[in-house]
Each structure stands twice: as structure tokens, then as C-alpha cells.
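Researcher: Going back to the complex we discussed earlier. I've cleaned up the inputs and rechecked each line, so this should be the final set. Can you rerun the prediction on the complete assembly and write out the structure?
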Amino acid sequence: MSDHSILQIQGVTKAFGGILALNGVSFDVHEGEIVGIIGPNGSGKTTLINCITGFIKMTSGKVFFRGRNISGKPAHKIADMGVTRTFQIMRPYYSLPSYKNLIIPLFSPRARRTGGWRGGGKLGDRDTVGIDILEEIGFERDSFVPYKIASTLPTGYLKRLELARCLALKPEIIICDEIFSGLSMSEIASMVPLIERLQMDGITLLMIEHRLRELFRVANRVIVLNFGEKVIEGIPEQIMADEQVREVYFGSEEVEEVMSHA
Amino acid sequence: MDIGERRKERLDRGIKVRTDGIYALMSLRELSYLTVPRLVFILGILILPLVMPSMYWQRVISIVCIYALLALSFDFLAHFAGLVSLGGAFFIGTGGYIAAILNTSFGLPTIVTIPISTLLGAAICTLLLLPCLPLRGVYFAIVTLMYPLVFARIIEALNIFGGTDGIMGVVSFPNRWVEQYFMLTMVLLFLFGMRRLVNLDIGLVFRAVKDNDQAVRASGMSITHYKAIAVFIASAMGCLGGACLVHIYMWSGISQFALDFSIIPIAATVIGGAGTLVGPILGCFILVPISELLRAFGTLRIVFYSLILVAFIVIRSEGIMVYGQRKYHQFERWVKV
Amino acid sequence: MDILIYGTINSIALALMALGFALVYGISRVPNFAHGALYVVSGFITWSFVRAAGLNYLVSIILAMVITGVIGALIYQFVLIRVRGMAISEIIASYAIGLAILEGFRWWGFKGMTYTLPVFLEGSTDIAGIPVDFHRLLVVGIGGVVVAFLWLFTHYTRIGLALRGMAQDERAALMLGIDSDFMAVVAMAFGSMLAGLAAVLLLPLGNIVVEAGYNVLILAIAVCIVGGLGSWVGAVLAAFLIGFIQILTVMYWGAHYQMVVALLAIIFTLILKPSGLFGQQKELEERV
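Model: Rerun complete. Updated structure for the full complex:
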């Protein structure tokens, strides 16, 4: 157990009724790295995120964040410590403009503690910070996009808005639930550098993905889940070459394609 | 013209230079475009007691104000915090009983009992509703519907607070002008206060809790905490209404937990326009006087406003206020396709 | 011993009151808050047929049940169908209808005077030294038959199976060619008839009063919530639980507490375990 690991997952198990969605999953995430989690549908990826971030209670197992046990804490306490997440199904606050969407995370206790913008908390203060964050994440400041009602945004911007919501909290780790899925090729092309920049800014990322090609480009380490159990863990090249992974993804064309490129 | 050959075109009228929520007022006309409706509303409300023909109708205005506070509280909770509370009577009863006890047992004057019962009542209501806050939609609605009933039955069964007779001999307001203008001022204060609040940052958080509570949790905020604040604000309005009601009727009894206080505000909100905050108040100003006119027919008035409520729900009406706002801000015309 | 006998009778009565509500909610997910009003309507129709029109008792009971069923179907067809799926609007709309019916009766002079229905069988017998009249025994018997009939109906008949299919998964049922709106109307009619049956069975034990409508609604909700909304078996079990607790509190504390028990049962069940003591829905406690 190295001292620079930021998140330690130890034997996380989740049973829905009699079905084991997760069975003793353990791994470490180190400070500043990008860890990918892959696995076929129903392998328990999203359940794992929900367990880590406290949205559902795990049956057994422990999660440590910087050495502190966060398993069993309520979701908002975990987010307050800097463990943020995005949602696979994006549901922004539809009736609000994009930059107003960020008022909510900016109003949170954590953002108020960590924000460098506490200039008396005047009206409009948070609006400015919100627009700054949106610009950072790829909303063009001078265009009308940040001011549009969130329900009219295309998927690419909604995914960015999810990331922006995490960034507003000044996170230590962002757990992304399929941030690439549903995006067009050009949207992905602009998302990848964004992820890389987040890493350079010192944010640790745990990414759950279906799009293996893009994930393998950015990830430092990849963990493969199948039927709720960890199959293998290693650097992307190792995973691509592994026989077990081929078995898990048997028939999946994309893997074949990625593998042949490797 | 055949329906296929034409369509309705809606054009904004009014302020030329604007983006969402930000206006640049270019002329006196544009300034009045924004302020006249508000001024008419405020002045209209303030003049009301002067033009009422009799003492009886002046009293009706005070009662309208109590319902207006309740309707405002229902609208705020349901459409800005996502908690549909069918227990308006619970707020009225709590505020009313506290005011009555403070006045009769401790001899405190009106000016003290009303603020205390507003805040203390709101605190009590919030504490009692606290365990129910994680409940969603229907379940919260059912549980809030049961609260006033259970309190009425408990008071009856334990024979406390005067039992079925209630608490009598509560002092009234100094005179009817104080009573009416106090009530009207409170309604206006709360109305414009709430309109301001829902657009403040914390108001956005309430709306976010309603839209998507998971994202609020993921933003590191406890939804229960914000729901509790919303319930406190809403129940403060209800308790204020209850305290005033007790001082107006000089009596407090279990009928304050009656269904009238739960159903009329809902009907007023549906009729006036849900989610507009002004609409419910207008709804009360329409519905309560009509219900008073029907007082001679006894419980027929409950039938009357229940049926109006059903009718508005069935035709899926948007409400008077939403309709009015649309007509005011846009004009429609048929254009050939 | 008397606790056992009175408790059983009370529990069966509660189950009868609640079954209609549970049936409608279980199948069409419509919380029918007009249930109590339909109960009173049925009692009043029976009374007017028997006392005012002088019809045969059995004929008027059957007529009353059919009419109540039709009223329920009409309420669904013309009002609730418009707000289908919007649970809060369903509650408000059906509650307002119930309120209109009950207060309409009250305005019409349905108070003060005593309206009673004759009991089916005069006389009483002794069970283990406690006098129990025949009518109450009949209620217990018919209650048991109704529960058994419902079970057989939903497990072995075509329409019953369709109803159960819809209760489990409405979309899947739609794909299998089950007309969900028609089934909801059928369920509503059935539920209303059950309310009517409960009324003609239980009202001869006392007077027909408007307040009964509110009390029946509260009791039905209490039983269904404690048993888990949508679960009939749960409702029957919960009826026994609440029935016996009510009898115990009435015996030791006083009659005032009968409704307090039901109301507190609703509140505490919702707070502690919203899916009910016997419900199988986990989604309420764990949803992301």
C-alpha cells in the first residue's frame, strides 16, 4: 500500500437481492494518474462508482480516500471531501442556463471553502466564476452557448457541463461514468485533450468507459471487470495483449480493431 | 382558412434590448411596461380595504390573505423545492395554537405572539416533518395529508389545549384597519420576498433539488438540509397565517386542522397558475370571496371549489397568471404557411 | 379471548375497506382518494333503494354495487385518465372528487337524521362466552370468501391474469396486447365495487354518516401503506396487524385512539420503511 495512493478500494461487494453485482473488487488509485475501468455491459462498473461515491450502500468492503475510511458516508459528505463524479445519464438543471447550472456546486460548502473568489459573496459573483469554469472546459465565452438553457444543449456540451460541475468543487479526484459515450468523433477529439489537461492540473481521474480506443490513449492503468469481479489490472499495452481480456470481450469488434492496431 | 394552411405566430412585444433576464430600458414606455403591472397589483391590493362595502367583506379580505399566505407556501414548496405538501392545515393549526397559548396562558400581546408563533411554529413544523423529507412525491403528499388529521385527533383524544372546545378569549387586533393592512402587507412582503428568493443563489439550489436531487448530492450538498430550509420558510408563512387567524377569530380550535386549509390553497394555485407565486394569490382573491358568497349554502362551497379544482386539472389549464403573462408579453397572429 | 374475536372481526372489516384501494393502486398505480366517498355512496344508494324505493334487500345491494362500480369507472374514464401517470395530480383530483361527493351529501341534508341499513340476519350467538351477532360472523365469512375469490380470480382467469400482468410491468403488458387504459377502467370499477361491498356489509353495524367516508379512506390508506402499496397480500396481513392494535388500544386507552393508531401507522411506516412492512419494492429505499 503505497503512501501516494489517493483512493483505495478494498473488497467492495454489492448484492442486489441474491445477485452479486460486485464481488470483492480491490484496487488502488494513485495521486495524479488516470485509471480506466472497462468491462462488458452488466459487469458492475456503474455500481462500483455508486458504491465509491456513496450513492448506494455497499454490502461489504471498504473505500479509503487519503487514508480516511469513506465507506458508508452519505454521498454529499464524500463529494464534500473532493471525490466528485459525473453521471452516465446527464440530467442538468434543465430550466436554468448553463452558467447558472454551476451556481449550485459553487454554492456548496466545499466550493465556498476552496474558492478563491470569496469577495464578499455579492450577487453575480458566482456567475463570473461559473462562466470562467465553463470557458476552461470548452464553452466559448463570447458565444451564446454558456447562456443557453441547459435543455437545449447538445450531448457534447452536456458532458462538459457534467465535468464543469465537478470542477466547480475544486475536486481531488473525478470519477467519470462513460464520458466519451454518445459523443461524435469530433467531440471526442476535443474531449481527449481536456482530460489530459485535467491530469496536468493535478486532478486524479477514474474513468469508466466503453470506448476503449480513446481510453487507452489517456489512461495510465486499466482495470478489467467482468461479472462483478476484477479480471486483470495493468498498463494499457498489457491489457490489450492479454488473453483473458480477449475472452471477456469475445466478439466485440471494437476490441478486435484496437487489438490489431496495438 | 384551413388549419393546414396557417399557423399561429407568437411575437414578443415590449423591451427591445434584452437577453435572458437582463434588460436595457430605453424609454419611459419600456419602463412602464415592466412596472405598471406590478404597481397596479400593489395599489389594487392596498386600496381593497377602503372600497369594501361592509365590515363583513373587510373581514373576508383578511381571510383571503391567510389563504394567500398558504397558497404561496404551497406553490413555493411544490414548484420550487419539489415537495408537494397537502398539509397546509398543519401549518395553520400549529401557528394558531401557539399564538393562542402564548396569548391566553402567558398574556403576551399580539405584537409578540405573531412573530414568536411564526418562528416557533415553523421550527416545530420543520422538526416534525424532518423524518419525512427523504420521501418522494406521492409518499410525502400522503404523509403531509395525515399530519393535520393526527394532531386534531390527538388533541381530541388527550383533551389538551381545550380539547374539542378549543382555546377561547384570544385578544383581537387593535382595530380592523390594523388587521387588514397588517395582513395585506405581510402578503405583499412574502410575495416579493419569495420572488426575490427563488432567483437568488440559494433559490437556484432549491430549484435544483426539485430538478435533479442526485446532481445536488454529487455537488457536495445535503438535499435534506435544503429541503428543511424550504419547509421552514414555507411553514413560517403558514404559521403566520394561523397566528393571525386565531387573533382575527379570537379563538383557536381543532377546526384549524380542517381540510379547508389544505384544499383551497391547492385549488387557488391550480387556478392562478402554478409556479408563478403571484398566480396563487390571485387565485385566492378569486376563490375565497366566491366561497364566502356561498357560505349560506353550507358545505356546498366545498363541493364548488373541489369541482373547480377537478375541472382545472382535467382541462390541464396553465392557470390565469401564466395565460395573462403570455398575453401581456407576446401577441399572436395567424400567418399563412 | 374477546380480543381475539373482536380483533378478527375488526381486521376483516379493515381488509374489506382496504382491498378496493389496494386493487386499484396495485393494477393501475392510481391512488384512488375517492375511495371513502364511493363507500358512502354505495351505502346511500342501498339505503334509498331499500327504504325509499322499497326494493328487495338483496336486489338493492347488487344494484348499489353495480352503480358504484359504474361511478368509479366514470371517474376514471373522464377525470383520472387525463392526469394518468402524474401521481400528485391523481391524488389531488381523486381527493377533490371524493370531497365534492361527501360534502355534497352533507349539504343535501345527509346529517342529523339517522340513516341505517337493516342487518342481514337478526340475533346473536355465543362464542366461548362472548356474544357475537350473526351479522358480524357473516362479515367475517364473506370477507374470507372475497379474499379467496380475488386470489382465484387473479390467478386463474384471463382478465385477472391480464390485470396482474399490468400490475407488474405496464409496458410489457402493452406490448402483449393488453389495453392498459381499459384494464385500468376495469380495475377502478372492481375497486369501487369492492368499496360498495364493504359498505353494504359494514354499514348495517352502524349509521350511514359522511364522516365514515373520511375514516374509511384513512383506514384504507393506513392498511395499504403498512402492507406496502400495491401488495394485496401485504394489505390483508396489515389489516390484521392494525385491526388487532386498534382493538388493544381501544380496550386499554379508549375509543378516541382508534383513528390515531391508523394515522400514526401511516406516518411511522412511511418514515421508517416507505415500501411497507410486506412490500417487495426495493426501489424506494435504493435508487440512483
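Model: Worth noting: The first strand of chain A starts at residue 5 and ends at 16.
Researcher: Good, that matches what I expected from the previous run.
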